[in-house]
Amino acid sequence: MQHFTIFFDKIITPFKMKKYLIIGIILPLFLPGKMCFAQRGKDGAKIVSSIVNVNEYTALTANASAGSSTISVTNSSLNSSGYFSGPLAPGDLIMIIQVQGASMGLANDSTYGIINFYNNCGFNEFAQVSSVPNSTSILVDCGLQHSYTASGRVQIVRVPRYTTLTINNGGQLTCPGWAVATGGVVAVEVLGNTIINTGGAIIASNKGFRGGALDNQSQFGTGDYRWNTGLSGAEKGEGIAGNQGDYDSFSGRYDRGAPANGGGGGNGHTSGGGGGGNAGDISTWNGYGVPDVSTASWANAWNLEWSGFASNNSSGGGRGGYSYSSADRNALVEGPGNGNWGGDLRRNVGGIGGRPMDYSTGRLFLGGGGGAGDQNQNKGGAGGNGGGLVYILSFDNVSGSGSVVSNGTNGQNTTVRGTDAAGGAGAGGTIIINSTGVISGITINANGGNGGNQIIRNVFEPIEAEGPGGGGGGGYISITNGSPARIANGGANGTTDSGGLLEFPADGATKGGVGLPAVTFASYYLTAIGDSVCPNTSGTITASIVGTPPTGITYYWFNAAAGGNPIATGNTYNTPNLSSTTTYYIEICPGFYRVPVQVVVTPNPVPAFSASNVCLGDPTVFTNTSTGGTGYSWNFGDGNTSTQTNPSHTYLTSGSFVVTLITSNSATGCASSITHTVVVGIVPQVSFTSTGATSACGSLTVNFVNNTTGGGANTYTWNFGDGTGTSAQQNPSHTYNTPGTYTVTLAAALGSCNDIDSIVSYITVNPSPTAGFTSANVCLGDVMSFTNSST
């Protein structure tokens, strides 16, 4: 089935450090901690703990053509009940749906009510509001996908845009019932999680097309399919071709014929109303419903109508029960219309069951109303209302153990001692859950209601019987994913408790046919890739669609989250030169919201360095003083590079080098350059010698010879090692006066480049001796002894 609804994911995610991927629905999205995603989520978080309505409604007042962006309405404020914080405004979401306007056959035979043309009935779409120019006009972002006919009862539903939705035990999200022009629709958009807890529900049961009302006129023996007075039969149920007032203008609101998906009214005298229809296999519809054979012998009674009728399996609504009988005969032997039944002969003139609708083109419908039971003693039962429409737009998970329900209403029973016929049931409604997240846990029901019962047995009329009501047909359930429990069964037929029909209490009333509970459809969503650029350069942002959208998609770029005119079309937009980070918005038509796409302007990096003059073999230290950017790359201008944030580099020769610092987190890299003039100083290779003696007694004067090589030096510093001073001469002389061994050091510098050499034990000064001796007096001729006392 085709439900062309656009989805986006909910976060902005870094992508390869140069781009970022935006998927998002959207999303998401306006939850705390999530980035801004235009207008989705603008109505905040919603917690439901009681029975609440959340939608506002207005009606279309003039036909609207496909492609038009302007719709005329009764009241454009769409806040008459105060469910929103203010009147409708740019960025708000509306749903447009044509509820009726189909044309049907009017022949007074079994073809009555056949759908000739759906026309614009069932067309629907979501749209984001562009502006609200006055009290009766609304402009939308995208031209309408469909044309709408005002006389077909088109309603505009204001849809809340929640960040999250939580429905607690006892909470019910619901809507007013369909009432001529508006109602019957529950629609919400939820950016984050939708949680329906146990005991909580979203409910549109009884909110669809209205069942036939009672009148108190009846005559015997009528068999028409349409009539303009209640003498011939009971009122038909409402459906896509119109309401009961409309039926008056094209041949009559009464009798058994089923008007499109509305159930036929029971014919006179006092047959049961037919059940409404909604979804099911169109090819199997014949209006006679599904006979109840839960008791095997009942097949005999059914087959008295025609051979094999017990296995009839019509889609749509069930048929209403037979007309009035006054005798106690055996229904398993004597069929309808047999004169032995007395009264109105228990004729097969109950209301025909409503038709199933064609959902294959994306149209959506309300459940058909059941036809009323015929009465003439004010004891009959009216037809039940069909189920309404529930539409959940979700950009995250839908979970919980609660339920989403749009069941048809049971046909009304007769009163106690009810000597009249019962009403046909309403059909199950329509439920759509369109979600990018997982749908799980919840139970989804769109069942037809049960036909009304005749409650008659009493001492005054122990065997009289009138027709019970037919069951409502099953509804339509369509979701995007998951396997939650889904049920769209037809409703049970009503029964009579008459003592004359104890062997066959269905008395001609049949069950509704099964609907379409398990439809799965694929959504599609928009992705957009942003950009990161350098200051005063242009960015490129690109959008694409994941999934299979309808044909004719157009991309529009805006510089505002809501309202305004597009600045460009196409899936790629080249921005003007930007000096600061800028957000743009992409929307596709058909579509109903915008996704922000950011072009991040990364500041140019700022390089700095430590010094211009270095010595051979010594590095220059470079410093990154940037305030933005990541992934740096240095080019030192001499063929060497580095990816360190603050690198060091050693130049081998002097020169002027263009040093470039690049950030790699943009498509081309943002770069800044500085010119670094390097003077590479050659380090002197120090050595020296001396002339003359290097060892002596007493004082010693030494002449030093500077043999420094490697380009020479422009400063010298001698330290003679004896603590008497230094010299800056190139070839100094120095006198040592103190005995000792000395270390001589020479430091030579060429600019800031220097070298030091030293000579250990090079100079030796020995102390001078002091002569002295002793002797003793001796006689002539004796030997004198001398003792050396030198120091």
Overview of the molecule:
1% of the residues lie in helices and 31% in strands. The protein has 791 residues and is an all-beta fold. Strands 1, 2, 3, 28, 30 and 33 form a 6-stranded mixed sheet that branches. β50 and β51 form a beta hairpin.
Please specify the SSE layout and strand pairing.
Layout: E1 6-7, E2 11-15, E3 19-23, E4 46-48, E5 51-53, E6 56-59, E7 70-72, E8 93-98, E9 103-104, E10 115-117, E11 124-134, E12 137-140, E13 154-159, E14 161-162, E15 165-167, E16 172-174, E17 185-190, E18 194-196, E19 201-203, H1 244-249, H2 298-302, E20 389-394, E21 398-400, E22 403-405, E23 430-435, E24 443-445, E25 476-479, E26 485-487, E27 516-520, E28 524-529, E29 531-533, E30 540-546, E31 554-558, E32 568-569, E33 572-574, E34 582-589, E35 595-601, E36 607-609, E37 613-615, E38 620-624, E39 632-635, E40 641-642, E41 648-649, E42 655-663, E43 670-681, E44 688-691, E45 695-697, E46 700-706, E47 715-719, E48 726-727, E49 733-736, E50 740-750, E51 753-766, E52 773-774, E53 787-788
Task: Give short descriptive properties of this protein.
mainly beta, six-stranded mixed β-sheet, rod-shaped
Taken as a percent bin, the fraction of beta residues is: 25-35%
Number of strands: 53
**Uncertain stretches:** 1-36
Instruction: Characterize the overall form.
Output: rod-shaped
Rg, nearest Å: 49 Å
- What percent of the residues sit in helical stretches (DSSP H or I)? under 10%
End-to-end separation: 126 Å
Please, what is the average pLDDT?
89
Largest sheet: 6 strands, mixed
**Which structural category do the helix and sheet elements fall into?**
mainly beta
DSSP helix count?
Answer: 2
